[in-house]
Amino acid sequence: MFESLKSAINGPNAWSESREELKEKKQPVSKSPALTGNRVTEKRKRKKRKKKQQQAQESEKRSVPEPRPISPGETLSGHGRKEKSGNESKPIVRGIFQIGKKSHDVVLTSTRVTWTRIQPESPAGEASQTKPVEDFVELKDVFAVKVKRRRSAGQQSGGTLLGITLFFCKRKGAKLKDDTIHLDNLSVDHCEIWFKHLKEILNGFKHRPKSLKVFVNPISYKKDAYHIYKDRVAPLLKLADIQTDVTVTERKGHALSILKECSLDQYDGVVCVGGDGSVAEVVQGLLLRAQMDAERDRQSAFMPIPASLPLGVIPAGSANVVACSVNGVKHPVTAALHIILGHRQPVDMCSLSSMGVLLQFGFCVMVGFGGQALTVAERLNWIPPTQRHELALVTALAQLRPEDCELSFIPSSTGESDHTQSELEEDLSDVEDADWQVRRGLYLSLTITSIPCLCSVAPKGLAPFTRLNNNSMALTAVANTSRSEFIKHLKRYSSSNNPFSFSFVEVQRVQAVKLGPCSRHDDEQRDSKHTAIIPSEGTLTWNIDGELLEVQGEVLIRVHPKLLELFGTDVEEAEEPPVNCSCI
Ligand SMILES: Nc1ncnc2c1ncn2[C@@H]1O[C@H](COP(=O)(O)OP(=O)(O)OP(=O)(O)O)[C@@H](O)[C@H]1O
């Protein structure tokens, strides 16, 4: 294994040259200042060392064992500082490395690398009384280990071995950043042993992907998805030795057609670099492919089977609700590190079907204002996206009209984790016989979400009571009201006030929803003389994850628990600075 790395990074000759070089010089592993006093004779040094060893045995109080050059490959099981307990704290290998030009006693266990500064002795040979500071990095956060060499400008291979470098991820709030720790030691054998053990441990993280299919939408939002991928994500994937097969999409539907046909066996995950529309397309591809492979027909009450591969989302769109809901921030490096480290989060999804046929899978479905604003935005597609969204919002607010709808829903009876998948499937298969609650009326907005939909305009999410996988959807129904009251409700999404504490807003945790244009006769229509209603002609305009869909008649929306795995984590709130839309 080490041999292959040698050739991969430096070429075999370069590695053997270094080995010879080190042998000639009889390079010691690393020296603590205590062991290298320049006027001390070898004899005195040995005496000192012996004395130190005695002191160490006598003094239980010392928190760090005496630094000593250990022979390459020496395994110190149970030796040294007392650690917690169990195999996790058992040293696998131990040695002395320079970290930041200071000698450190470094210990590798199966879960972490710990280093402690070696305290120089006083001239009288007494050990320092100050407690050495211990630092560590958890191996679950380490995503790459590389051999470090000194190379001159332009030199592509070879170079003097300097030690090994660990690449790890550190957390600041929801944000993840990559960082490095350099363990400097000129001994090839010593580094080889450490490298081998570290690689073995990292290869043991089976949930981390080794091969990814990547889709990049070059026209997303500010058209910078390709650069985001190339400059900020690809270098990290390369460092982590992840193979990638990248498709820069050429048209709408390109990713979907590839996912329906290509062999997925060679991949451990799929990555989408783009906005929510691109994510929706890749999700359709993954889920349709899973149904096709399992030969499931897609009639109304069918129980979809989960996608075979997890999906990572690198945010490059405007709202990025899917990325924010599992990363907490709109930050490509955070998303990339969650993918590399294999953090996976099962998420609930909803399906939409009409007349007994599956239309689409989705995370967030809107009718009314959400559909109207998106219709305007699509018409204004000649305007740059940054201004288009605001203008569409203002126009939709100016033209705000309620939709006359018939809404039915089954309240969710399931707890977050107390039902098995088959029980949930059973519940969902009897939707026709279930106890539907029915509402008829004028609605300004209806939103159904299976995940919280966090974003910068709604840091706490669009849905109050849903989590990523609590086996239910959140239904928010905003009944007809004045424009000013509706704007107040919208503004509260980006403030600390509760957007749902209005008499005209109803929120339900639901398992299934039926929604269609109202079929009442004209003479039954309430307030029709006083309220301008969108003439539906039996059709509603749906906004499904940022994509428009016109559907005639009623649509059935059902929740499907844990239908997809996303790379990411469960987050409470988006850590994006709240954006107050200047237009409202
Ligand atoms: N090369 C392409 N040309 C045109 N459309 C494309 C291309 N590649 C993908 N698409 C489509 O572009 C649509 C919009 O993509 P995306 O959501 O990433 O961008 P956006 O709409 O600008 O972002 P947001 O949804 O965050 O506002 C998707 O439906 C996707 O299928």
UniProtKB/TrEMBL annotation:
What segments bear the compositional bias annotation Basic and acidic residues?
17-27
Q: Which GO terms describe its molecular function?
A: lipid kinase activity
Please give an example of a GO cellular component term from this record.
membrane
Q: Which InterPro entries match?
A: ATP-NAD_kinase_N (IPR017438), CERK_C (IPR045363), CERK_PH (IPR057465), Diacylglycerol_kinase_cat_dom (IPR001206), Lipid_Phosphate_FormReg (IPR050187), NAD/diacylglycerol_kinase_sf (IPR016064)
Query: Pfam family example for this protein?
Result: DAGK_cat
- Region feature Disordered, mapped onto this chain: 1-92
Residue ranges occupied by any DAGKc domain in the UniProt entry: 207-356
**Source superkingdom:** Eukaryota
Which processes are annotated in GO (biological process)? sphingolipid metabolic process
Where are stretches of biased composition, namely Polar residues? 29-39
The record's SUPFAM superfamilies line, in alphabetical order, gives: NAD kinase/diacylglycerol kinase-like
Q: Where is the composition biased (Basic residues)?
A: 42-53
* Protein name as catalogued: DAGKc domain-containing protein
